[in-house]
Every structure is written in C-alpha cells, then in structure tokens.
C-alpha cells in the first residue's frame, strides 16, 4: 500500500475511532453526521446503518497495520450493533448484524464464541420476513407515495435485501447449516429476474443495466429524489454484486453441491442442481456473472466523469465513496474470474482512472466536505449516516488499490 494511501486511510479510520461513543455506538458529540443539522432527515441517534461499514473499514485497516486500537474500536462497533438487533428491527439490520458485524467479529476473535447464540437468534428472527411472493424476503417496512399516502406493501429495496443475502451466506459459512445457503439460492432470483412494473417480480433492469433502487414507484428517500423503480444507484450496484459474488463462490464448489443435494433429497425437495425455474446451476452461475458484469459496466459507462470520479446514479455529483465502491466491485469480480478478458481490457483503465482520482482527492489536505463534490446537485449528503458510510467506503477503496493495480492487462 502506498505511503500516501496509508496516511489517507489512517486519517479516515482515526475519525471513525473518534466518532465512537462509550457504548460502542456512534457519539453524537464527536460525529456531526449523527446530529443536526448534518444528520438530515434521520433523527439523532447512536445507532445507524453506517455502523457495519465503519466497523468493516476499521477491521481492514487493522489487518494491514496490526495496530490494536483499530481492532478494539471495530470490536466495540460490532458488539453494539449486535446488541441493538432484536426481533422487531427491519431485515437489513438483521442481515448486517450477521455480515459484516458477526462474521468479521468472529474472524478477528477466533476463541470468542459468546456471540454465537445471538447470531443464531438473529437468523431465526430473519425468517419472519420470508414471503411466498417473488422477492422471497421482505425488507420489513412500507413507503410513502408521491402524494404522501403511506402504503404498507413492502418496499423491497435492493440495497436492504442484499444485506439479507450476505447475512444468509455468512451464517451458512460460520455454522454450516445448509438451509441458509438454500435460502440464499432461492433469494438470488429476486436480483436476477427482470423487474415487472407494479410487481415484486425482480429488481433487475436491463433498460438501465443495473439493479433498481427498488420495485415500488416511490421517491424522496435518502440521498436522491428519483423514483425507486426508475433508477439504479451506487449503493446497490456494489452491495448486490457482493451478495451474488459470494453466492457464486459456493455454487462452484462441487463438494458443497453434493452436500446440499443430499440435504434437499432428505427433505423431499428437488436438487439444488436446479433453480426455481428449473435451470441448471451452471446456467444460474452464468446469469450471476452477466448481471454483475453488466452492472459494473453501468457504473463506469453511466456514472464516471472525465476525471475518473463516479456519481451516485449517473453523472450527478462526484462522490469519493461511490468511486471507491466501483473499485471494490471491480476487484471482487475480477479476483473470482467473473470479468471476461475483453471487458477487462476495456474497463480496467477506467477503474485505474477512478483509483487515481480517489487517491488525489482523499488526502487530509484535499478531502472535500462530506466526501462530496456537487456538480448538478441531483444527489445530496443527506442523511448524514449515509455520508459516514461512504467515508468508510473511501478508506476501503484506498486499501483495495494495490489489489486493483496487481491485475494488469493480459
């Protein structure tokens, strides 16, 4: 890792450590993104959807430097998030509690199994969001339409539900309960199937080239004013790819296929060799590769500015964290040999350009306020917890830089 990148990542991670409250959550005193006015539309609180990603950046920085203060803070964030997760919270929180919080805590604390019962409980609670509808899992809350009327139909946001998918895979990996992997396989159809307007039948948009923010025609949420069923955004492009890439790892494990075939046979169900629509596992894996690579191309084709920066849902405004997410997405897919050679030759220079811009803009002297440079103003740094989340992404993107540079062009 370059010396300057280490300095830049350290500066961010030191902020994340400073933001921590005694409880292990986020301090409203030291983190302006969790209190007004920067907290925006989200109420002031020590909890937040940014915590799993703050924690993840700290663990990764500890892995690179070996400095215990970063692990200690990451441990506290993980325990706090798990403690705040109960049977009434939305599905994304349960998924995020399992991965990255529990998964990385256990990875960094091999002899500490004290949180295992909580993880098992969270997995059980997550099953309440199972549905017979095409989305397989619900997010757990409704939405307001453009007229301000509340609808209790599930929002089905792709970013929320990708958290659930990663949680299922992490649970399987840590506890070897094959049922969790089978849920992940069935659930993947929601991310692979083409969206049908007015339905929950899929959240993929071939017209756009990535995952929709959600299947409902609602707007006015988080950083954007677009309608969820008409736009993609960088949060989902990264998170959905990460879920499907991790599922891909297991689908190509022949040993594992045999185990799950046996499990399904014992339960009188069809083999895992077929998906919900009767296709082969090889065909399912091909669809996963296609969706992930198509989405990667959307990130650079639709969102990248001339200087290398990426916007959130197109060339709207320049975000350090979204640029970092595209870099991480590239690395996750390429290291699994999911990116075809011709695509790599075309898009690798674009990824390197994104990395160069990220490095230039993320030093302590150049870091823009909120990690955001307005161009059109169509995206905004609100809510504050999302800004903190993207700042953590920025640190991870810098730490991913050497991996990206190692690939080269064949």
Description:
The protein is mainly α and 410 residues long. The protein has a single domain (3-81, 169-209, 232-407), classed as Glycosyltransferase, CATH 1.50.10. 54% of the residues lie in helices and 3% in strands. The protein has helices at 3-18, 51-65, 68-83, 91-108, 116-126, 158-175, 178-192, 234-251, 254-266, 281-303, 320-334, 341-361, 384-407; strands at residues 143-144, 150-151, 204-205, 210-211, 318-319, 372-373. A two-stranded antiparallel ribbon has the order 1-2. The longest helix is centred in the last third of the chain and has 24 residues, at 384-407.
Overview features:
410 residues; mainly alpha; Glycosyltransferase; two-stranded antiparallel sheet; 13 helices; 3% strand
List the helices and strands and how they pair.
Elements: H1 3-18, H2 51-65, H3 68-83, H4 91-108, H5 116-126, E1 143-144, E2 150-151, H6 158-175, H7 178-192, E3 204-205, E4 210-211, H8 234-251, H9 254-266, H10 281-303, E5 318-319, H11 320-334, H12 341-361, E6 372-373, H13 384-407
Antiparallel strand pairs: 1-2, 3-4, 5-6
Brief summary:
The chain is 54% helix and 3% strand. With 410 residues, the chain is an all-alpha fold. Strand 1 and strand 2 (150-151) form a beta hairpin.
């Amino acid at each position: 890792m370059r010396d300057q990148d280490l300095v830049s990542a350290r500066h961010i991670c030191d902020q994340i450590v400073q933001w921590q409250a005694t409880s292990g959550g986020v301090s409203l005193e030291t983190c302006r993104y969790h209190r007004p006015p920067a907290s925006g539309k989200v109420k002031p609180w020590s909890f937040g959807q940014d915590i799993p990603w703050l924690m993840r950046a700290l663990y990764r920085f500890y892995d690179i430097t070996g400095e215990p203060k970063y692990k200690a803070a990451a441990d506290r964030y993980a325990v706090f998030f798990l403690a705040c997760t109960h049977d009434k919270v939305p599905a994304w929180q349960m998924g995020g509690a399992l991965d990255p919080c529990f998964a990385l805590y256990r990875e960094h604390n091999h002899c500490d199994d004290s949180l295992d019962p909580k993880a098992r409980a969270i997995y059980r609670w997550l099953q309440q969001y199972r549905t017979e509808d095409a989305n397989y899992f619900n997010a757990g809350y409704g939405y307001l339409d453009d007229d301000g009327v509340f609808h209790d139909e599930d929002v089905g946001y792709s970013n929320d539900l990708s958290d659930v998918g990663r949680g299922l895979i992490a649970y399987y990996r840590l506890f070897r309960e094959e049922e969790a992997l089978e849920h992940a396989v069935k659930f993947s159809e929601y991310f692979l199937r083409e969206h049908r307007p007015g339905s929950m039948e899929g959240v993929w948009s071939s017209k756009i080239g990535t995952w929709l923010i959600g299947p409902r025609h609602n707007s006015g949420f988080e950083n954007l004013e677009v309608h969820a069923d008409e736009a993609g955004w960088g949060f989902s492009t990264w998170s959905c790819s990460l879920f499907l890439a991790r599922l891909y790892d297991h689908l190509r494990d022949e040993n594992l296929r045999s185990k799950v075939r046996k499990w399904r046979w014992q339960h009188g169900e069809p083999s895992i060799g077929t998906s919900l629509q009767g296709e082969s596992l090889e065909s399912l894996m091909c669809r996963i590769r296609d969706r992930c690579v198509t989405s990667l191309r959307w990130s650079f084709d639709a969102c990248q500015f001339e200087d290398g920066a990426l916007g959130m849902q197109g060339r709207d405004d320049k975000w350090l964290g979204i640029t970092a997410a595209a870099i991480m997405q590239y690395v996750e897919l390429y290291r699994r040999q999911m990116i075809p050679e011709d695509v790599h030759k075309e898009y690798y220079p674009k990824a390197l350009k994104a990395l160069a811009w990220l490095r230039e803009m993320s030093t302590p002297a150049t870091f823009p306020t909120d990690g955001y440079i307005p161009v059109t103003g169509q995206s905004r740094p609100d809510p504050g917890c999302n800004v903190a989340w993207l700042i953590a992404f920025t640190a991870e993107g810098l730490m991913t830089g050497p991996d990206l540079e190692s690939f080269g062009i064949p």
